[in-house]
Amino acid sequence: MKVEIKLRNKMINIQWQSISTLLKKIYQEPKIIKYFNNTFKLRVELWLEKFNQINKIQIIIFFSLFIPISLFSTCNIVNGKKYGNCKNIRTNIIPYISSVKTVEGMISGAHILSGGILFLNGMSNGNIIVDNNGKLIVQGTVNGTITNNGGIVIIDGTSNMVIANSGLTTISGIVLSVIGNGELKYKVGAIINGKPIE
């Protein structure tokens, strides 16, 4: 049986060698070479002709589909946690402020201690607490609650909510909700609870 298999394999091998030799002869004939060259040349010419017919705007639209969506992603920071594409975003997290600080970027909230002053020209995506003798000047946006516990709060920008427990809170910007028993001053042009101050 082993001898029979070896003989069969040898015959198959011999058959393939003869077929391979025959194919080489056929493909080396000038007519076949000319046929393949012409076919290839024709396909290239057809491709170039079709490509030149495509409008340049269509080409731009086609290739713009391959641009990664992440190039256009956004970064959101909520309570100090980053969501989205925040790879190149630097956040200034200032948990406790006991001296003078100016923020023009983004923070995730702050706690202003006695003697501390925060100038917020950027955005806070968290709550800001102002202790007795602390000071907060908002010219940016607070996406959270400002709680005044005896300091001075001046809002020229916007805030979601102000809780004026004590101290002085002056508003000339936009605040969606104001509550508390502390001293409140509204300047003309401010918008409090959706209503303009005249």
Task: Provide structural commentary.
- The structure is a single chain.
- This protein has 198 residues and is an alpha/beta fold.
- It starts with a helix and ends with a strand.
- Strands 3, 4, 5, 6, 7, 8, 9, 10, 11, 12, 13, 14, 15 and 16 form a 14-stranded mixed beta sheet that branches. The chain has a two-stranded antiparallel sheet with strand order 1-2.
- It is rod-shaped, with a radius of gyration of 38 Å.
- The protein has two domains: 2-64, no CATH class; 92-196, no CATH class.
- The chain contains three helices and 16 strands.
- It has helices spanning 2-27, 30-53, 56-64; strands spanning 75-78, 81-84, 94-97, 100-103, 106-107, 110-112, 117-120, 123-124, 128-130, 135-138, 141-155, 158-171, 174-179, 183-186, 191-192, 195-196.
- The mean pLDDT is 78.
Give short descriptive properties of this protein:
16 strands, 14-stranded mixed β-sheet, two-stranded antiparallel sheet, 2 domains, alpha/beta, 198 residues, 39% strand
Per DSSP, what share of the residues sits in E-state strands of 2 or more residues? 35-45%
Number of strands: 16
By secondary-structure content and strand pairing, the structural class works out as: alpha/beta
What average pLDDT do the residues reach?
78
**Residue ranges: pLDDT <50 for 5 or more in a row?**
none
Estimate percent helicity.
25-40%
Radius of gyration: 38 Å
Major sheet, described briefly? 14 strands, mixed
| Individual helix count | 3
Shape: rod-shaped
Quote the distance from N terminus to C terminus: 109 Å
What is the string of SSEs from the N terminus onward?
A: HHHEEEEEEEEEEEEEEEE
Number of structurally distinct domains: 2
